[in-house]
Amino acid sequence: MTDQTTNWPDHLTGDAQPLEVGILLYEGHTALDLVGPYTTFALAGMKVHLVAETLDPVVSDDGGMTIAPTTTFDDCPERLDILFVPGGGMVYKPMLDPATIAWLADRGATASYITAVCNGPLVLAAAGLLDGYRVATHWASRDQLARLGVEVSTERVCIDRNRFSGGGVTAGIDFGLTVVAHTLGEKAARFAQLVMEYDPEPPFNAGSPESAGPEIVALRTRFMAEPDTALRNAVSHVLEQRAATSSHPVSDENADPAAGIVND
To answer: Which Gene3D superfamilies match (predicted)?
Structure first.
């Protein structure tokens, strides 16, 4: 990858115009989905906007972390370099919120990069921003993203033209570093990685359904039963809206969702 040193952040060169990043902030997001990429972007000197409909504090899906938006849909810069959507246990809420979908569609029309991690791509898909693109998502959300007609990748980080996406939660750090490397150069990304001391050595080999085994997968399924049901219902609602307007390709809800998943 070629280093674009003229685009490096101020603390590396002192003369760069920072990239404008808009991060969708919504009730019920997963904190690490947001904080991992946010940290990599900020360390690279990007100007990060936490965007919500209002400036009211927003609570994460575990109910324990509250984050204050820095700007609103109306006041966010009209032209963003990077549009980013984190995932969350309540991702179905922004999927069904007309104001959120309208804002994403508007900023997505001009943003240089359209990005998401975890199950965040479902919100982009609901806004019509992933038609014809190949996208990664959390392993437990692949079937629902495929229902929306998106070609689903099993990669940890997936790049398809100007669509950058990551798998579940912790993949957001890999995703963030990939975006930084692509936009500002590999040295900027390596700098951010070193500052974060991102050198993972997980104590257990349980980061995928295959390695975790059926007992742990079953625990996760029970734990997320209500959010998973709400997400399926939200996808069905989006498909019903598409059928009513005929503005998007409509997936057959009864079709095999695995048909749209590409193993990489």
So the answer is: 3.40.50.880
